[in-house]
Automatic annotation (TrEMBL):
Residues 207-231 are annotated as: Disordered. This is Sulfotransferase domain-containing protein. Gene3D superfamilies: P-loop containing nucleotide triphosphate hydrolases. It comes from Streptomyces monashensis.
């Protein structure tokens, strides 16, 4: 799964869209960690600050019992912290979708790994879910300069295999961090919520590990991206009034 900006506002934001279907876009933690490593995103997107920003409300009275222990202020390494963030964002969304206010809300889960393997099937399933005509697939564009040199963040092309440029230790670190967070959440959030999130983040085993790269050429010269601490949402192009929710930044 990708990282999210929903934070602890997910109940409020979903409440503003009571009749909107929910489309949950997921990705396996190893795939997310690979994109972070290849793009230098932990530093560019200031995720040390992001971790602190998310852990603060976790200790507030409303959330303390369920979430404070999941985001300890213990100076975690980036892969451990990323795993915790992936897990907590998924838990927050699953908790809300399983709550009384959202139990009847139509929802569809689209894993990144399934989408890049068969985009046509993804679009067909999405069109059926929304009861709209299936849009035509866009023709691939010719490679153009640096932006086309690395498909780290691409979701518009077909992929015959999934690779993660991580060391075995780093891949294990993020996977184990996610699993430990779900295990810790089991007692307070229950098996229904944690079971849903485990399904959402499945797929680490689909990735082939390759030696880490140094990141996209020139990425170290780019200024950090602006940091938006608030909730975000986006419309699905070509699909009417649906709102796409991503338990990860997209």
């Amino acid at each position: 799964m990708k990282e999210t900006n929903l934070f602890f506002a997910v109940d409020t934001v979903l409440g503003l869209l009571p009749r909107s279907p929910a489309i949950v876009l997921t990705r396996a933690p190893v795939g997310i960690a690979s994109s972070f490593a290849r793009g230098g995103l932990w530093e560019r997107w200031r995720y040390d600050d992001r971790y602190a920003q998310v852990s603060a409300p976790a200790r507030a009275p409303r959330w303390r019992a369920s979430f404070a222990a999941l985001l300890p202020d213990d100076g975690p390494d980036p892969f451990t912290a990323l795993g915790r963030l992936i897990a907590v964002k998924a838990l927050l969304l699953a908790r809300s979708l399983h709550g009384p206010a959202n139990e009847a809300r139509p929802r569809l889960v689209i894993p990144y790994e399934r989408h890049v393997a068969d985009r046509a099937a993804t679009l067909s399933g999405l069109a059926r879910f929304l009861d709209v005509p299936v849009p035509a697939l866009e023709a691939p564009q010719p490679d153009q300069g640096q932006e086309a040199a690395d498909a780290t963040f691409a979701t518009t092309g077909h992929k015959d295999r999934l690779t993660a440029r991580l060391s075995p230790g780093d891949a294990a670190g993020v996977s184990e961090s996610v699993a430990a967070t779900f295990e810790a959440a089991l007692q307070t959030l229950g098996p229904h919520v944690t079971g849903t999130t485990r399904e959402w983040v499945a797929g680490d085993d689909l990735y082939e590990l390759q030696p880490p790269s140094r990141g996209r050429p020139g990425s170290d010269r780019r200024p950090p991206l602006p940091w938006c601490p608030g909730p975000t949402m986006r419309r699905c192009p070509g699909f009417g009034g649906a709102t796409c929710w991503s338990p990860t930044r997209g």
